[in-house]
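Lay summary. Proteins are chains of building blocks that fold into shapes, and those shapes determine what they do. In this project we predict the shape from the chain. Here is one chain we studied, written as its sequence of building blocks.
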Amino acid sequence: MIEQKSTSAAPAPHPVRGAALCAIGALALAALAWVTRAVWHLRLAAAGEPASGPPDQGGGVHRPLNTLEDSYHLVDSVGSTVTFVCALAFLFWLDRMRDNAKALSGADPRYSYPWLWLGWIVPVVNLWIPRGIVADVHRSAFPERRLPAVVNWWWGLWLAGLAGGVGLIYADDTDEVIARAYDGVLPLLAADLIIVAAAGTAALMIHTLTTAQREHIAGQGH
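And here is the predicted shape, written in a compact code that computers can read:
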């Protein structure tokens, strides 16, 4: 999992500002998508469950969706697509930052390249590896400085968004989430708020770490 110090010459740092701006823009769109989802959760709760019951009737039977429920499926699909694109943009930025960290420190990253992707999905280790990759990016340039607090805020909110199968990844399918909005919308709204906050802190973290790394590179004369 952990790589040893490299003896080969480190490559020159990559420009990272464009990747950072793309990631921040994608996070803003993701936050908007989750705000929209929260609005639809409120609309469903205000409308109340139809007399015909929830969309999933049990036993594999689903009743036809009404207009509001059908529109929620569209909101959910668009939000999931935006979130996926956001994840790709974030990982592209992190990969660029990670490469630059190697160029600055002369050492290979603490975690090998596959963990940049697997670290988010492998159970148990996904509780610390992604944060560790981000932390190493900062420490490669500023080993004497404390990790910026925004990194811990972002990671705490990310974990909270995953807790209990709500937030970023619902354990229920879309029709089951609709039924939850009818029965008790507050947990769904809390999850939505956490994800929007996580997106905001992630954008701030990207700005903070990118600015620090760019200033360090400029100071090194690269």
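What the prediction tells us: The first helix runs from residue 17 to 47.
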